Amino acid sequence: MSKLTPAKPEEVMVIRNLTPDLVTLSVPFSRFGLARVGGRATIIRLKSQDLVVFSPVALTPDVKSTIESLGGKVKFLVAPDIEHHIFLSAWKQAYPDAQIIAPDGLKEKREQNPETRGLKFAHILTPTNKHGYKIPEFGDEMEIEYVDAHPNQEIVLFHKPTKTMVEADFIFNLPATEQFSKSEESPTQGLVTKLFVALMSAKGSVTWQKRTIWYLFASKDRKGYAQSANSMAKWDFDRIIPCHGDVIETGGKETFTNLLEWFLDGDKKRV
C-alpha cells in the first residue's frame, strides 16, 4: 500500500463539495509508479441520509470530519472493481455497519493476502446476477451497472438526483489536474504520463481512448461491453466522476456517447 498511496494524504487531498449531497476526495496517484493518473473517492448522500462511499481513499481526519458533516452514517462501501479496494479494511473498521459492494472475484483476491483477508461482502455482482440487480436502500435514486466484460470488472453507479455517473476505470479524463493540484508534482510530467494522457484524454476527437477501449478493454467480450454501454446510455446523466482524471462537470453524456459510439452504433466505422 505504501507504494501506491501518498506518504501524507492529508496534505495533498482535495476535498470538494460538488453539490450538498456529492463530495469528491481527490489524491495524487501514479500507475506503475510512473503514469500520473490520480485517484478519487466519491461520497453520495441518499435521501435517507445514508452515505455511499465509492472507491474509498485514505481515511484522513479531514475525511472523517467530512463524513460527520454529511451525517456520519456510512451505509455502503463500493469497491468499483478488482483494483480499487486497498482502503476497504480501514473504512470497514471505522464504520463496521457499512455494507461492502464489490465485483465477482474481489473477495477471493483479498483472501489470498493475510493483510486483506477476512472482510464480509454484503453484495457481490456477478455475470449471472447483474441483470436487474437491486440494492433495496438505493430505492429509485441509484442505478447500478456491472461491466463484467471490462478486464477490471467495473461497477458503475448513476445518481439520479444529481444526474451523475460515478465510475472507476471505465472512462478516463486525463490529465489529473485536480488530483495533483496540492502536490509538488505536475500532472503531465514524464514520458509515461504524457503517453497515458494522450491515450486516455476525453477531450477533442478522443480517438486514442476509443481505440484503447475497443482494442484493449473490450477485446475479450465486445458483445457484453456493448450491452453494458447501451444500458448506461439510457441513463439521464450530465456529470461524470471518474477515479482517474478531472471530473467532467457537464456534457458527460456527450462525452460518453463519443467514447462509446463504436458500441452504441454497430455500423459505425472504426479506425
Question: If you had to describe this structure to a student in words, what would you say it looks like?
Answer:
With 271 residues, the protein is of the alpha/beta class. It has a single domain, classed as 4-Layer Sandwich (Metallo-beta-lactamase, Chain A), CATH 3.60.15.10. The protein is built from nine helices and 13 strands. A seven-stranded mixed β-sheet has the order 1-2-5-6-7-8-9, with helices on one face. Strands 10-11-12-13 form a four-stranded mixed β-sheet, with helices on one face. A two-stranded antiparallel ribbon has the order 3-4. A hairpin with a 3-residue loop joins strand 3 and strand 4. The protein is globular.
CATH superfamily: Ribonuclease Z/Hydroxyacylglutathione hydrolase-like
User: Which structural class do you get from the secondary structure elements?
Assistant: alpha/beta
Q: Regarding CATH, which class?
A: Alpha Beta
Helix content: 25-40%
CATH domain fold name: Metallo-beta-lactamase, Chain A
Distance between the termini: 39 Å
Beta strands, count: 13
Mean pLDDT: 94
CATH architecture: 4-Layer Sandwich
Q: How many helical stretches?
A: 9
What is the element string, with H for helices and E for strands?
HEEEEEEHEHEHEEEEHHHEHH
Rg for CA atoms: 18 Å
Shape: globular
Major sheet: order of its strands?
1-2-5-6-7-8-9
